[in-house]
Design goal:
The protein has helices spanning 11-20, 38-51, 73-78, 103-122, 162-177, 206-215, 231-243, 264-272, 288-297, 312-322, 325-343, 351-356, 365-372, 381-386, and strands spanning 2-6, 28-33, 61-65, 86-91, 129-133, 145-147, 183-188, 190-191, 217-218, 228-229, 251-254, 282-283, 346-348. The protein is of the alpha/beta class. The strands form 4 sheets. A 7-stranded parallel sheet has the order 3-2-1-4-5-7-11, with helices on both faces. It has a two-stranded parallel sheet with strand order 6-13. A two-stranded parallel sheet has the order 8-10. Strand 2, helix 2 and strand 3 form a beta-alpha-beta unit. 45% of the residues are buried. Bound molecules: NADP nicotinamide-adenine-dinucleotide phosphate.
């Protein structure tokens, strides 16, 4: 059986590729990779296996050079005879940026790019399954607490970032191209780090925790529930769902659910002692973020009665830690959407996943962070703020 997968140079895609490569029922794994040519594409895939300290079998893992931004991608894939026998597609590639400056690119890759892959998928004679890696956050910000799969997609959802809107629109597109019985939608919640004691291979999301670790004053509800899952759990869950022919549903959350969810308090508790030189974590109302941003524009701009003045030791720490306030300002603007996500207090129901696989619940973030949290200081938070 041949499989085609996109996004393998990314955080989740790399994990999926190395996990898939262990399956003996798969003959070839074709990987869509952006590259300047064949040699560069092979090198990019080999790097993924090197990062996983795994063996790259060039006979089975085959790069297909292509770009989701290319309006001729579908045609190019259709004329590539090597792909005629593909039975399973896993579309994991996406532009995951939350930053407004990337909104049009996010739309182009996540919607137009998906259309290209779907138009090609439609032409495959033996396609069994198209797996779309969506996101549980397509439910938007109006839905609170316990979120089930059936609540989305909902066109009236209010999106905090363009990214989740495009992922919702992507889900809606699938049925226009393929029959329902060929579609599987997996919706991870928030993927952060992994349970193995590895140096992080991706700063996605982990960057936000690293930034909170640098700030130590967190303008968010300490006890808001956050649904976080480690990447190794997400990859294994997706693969189990893809190969489970008896699965009962078309859409699955891959999430922590209530029992394995975390909170800002628990996650920061897990890492607090790893960096004893920093001040203790303190939580404050999210409204404080506005004053924090104001303060970075000019300390005199802060109103006399600002509650931020109560935290003068943190202001001193920031001056010492960041030196110049414009760097801190960049961090705060990039952090803002993450604070809004934290405040939603959303937990994504995982009963479908638990019933249709033998995965069991994930390890809570505050448990695995106790061991992997020590790598947080390897993250360049400024680099991540520009391209989180
Ligand atoms: N991370 C999370 O917390 C999270 C949560 C829920 C759902 N998801 C979903 O999971 C999937 C993977 O996310 P991730 O965190 O692994 O993202 P990621 O690390 O940013 O990886 C994105 C992947 O997409 C590829 N890609 C981007 N633009 C492309 C283009 N124009 N043409 C071809 N490939 C392109 C990237 O290739 P390059 O290396 O060439 O850039 C990379 O391989 C996405 O669909 C995302 O929506 C992620």
């Amino acid at each position: 059986m041949d499989v085609f997968i996109t996004g393998v140079t990314g955080f989740l895609g790399g994990e999926l590729l190395t996990d898939l490569s262990k399956r003996e029922d798969i003959d070839k794994i074709f990987c869509l990779v952006r590259a300047s040519g064949e040699e560069n594409a092979v090198a990019r895939i080999k790097k993924v296996f090197d990062l996983h300290q795994d063996t790259f079998d060039s006979q089975r893992i085959i790069p297909v050079t292509g770009d989701l931004a290319d309006p001729h991608l579908a045609e190019n894939l259709k004329t590539d005879r090597r792909l005629n026998g593909v039975r399973i597609i896993i579309h994991s590639a996406a532009n995951t940026s939350f930053s407004k400056i990337y909104d049009s690119l996010v739309e182009k890759i996540n919607i137009d790019g998906l259309k290209q892959v779907l138009a090609w998928a439609q032409s495959l004679p033996d396609l069994d399954l198209f797996t779309y890696v969506g996101t549980a956050t397509i439910c938007g910000s109006l839905v609170k607490n316990h979120v089930t799969e059936d609540m989305s997609p909902d066109l009236s959802a209010k999106h905090l970032v363009k990214y989740s809107y495009t992922k919702m629109m992507g889900e809606l597109l699938l049925k226009e191209y393929l029959p329902e019985d060929r579609i599987l939608v997996v919706r991870p919640s928030i993927i952060m780090g992994d349970t193995r004691e590895w140096v992080p291979r991706s700063y996605v999301i982990l960057w936000a925790l690293a930034t909170l670790n640098e700030l130590r004053l967190v303008p968010a509800n300490a006890h808001s529930k956050i649904d976080i899952v480690p990447v190794d759990y997400v990859s294994q869950s997706i693969i189990k769902l893809v190969f489970n022919k008896d699965r009962k549903h078309r859409v699955y959350h891959v999430s922590s659910g209530e029992e394995a969810s975390s909170t800002p308090y628990l996650s920061t508790q897990a890492i607090k002692d790893l960096f004893p030189e920093k001040p203790p974590f303190r939580f404050a109302d999210k409204k404080l973020l506005a004053d924090m941003k104001k303060w970075t524009k000019g300390t005199t701009l802060l109103p006399e009665d600002s509650p931020l003045r109560e935290f003068s030791n943190y202001l001193d720490f920031w001056v010492e830690n960041f030196g110049n306030n414009s760097s801190l300002r960049i961090l705060l603007y990039a952090l803002e959407p993450y604070i809004h996500f934290i405040e939603l207090n959303q937990v994504f129901d995982n009963s479908r996943l638990l019933e249709d696989t033998d995965m069991g619940p994930s390890v809570p973030a505050h448990i695995y962070l106790q061991t992997v949290g020590k790598y947080l200081d390897q993250i360049n938070v400024f680099e991540g703020a520009i391209d989180p």
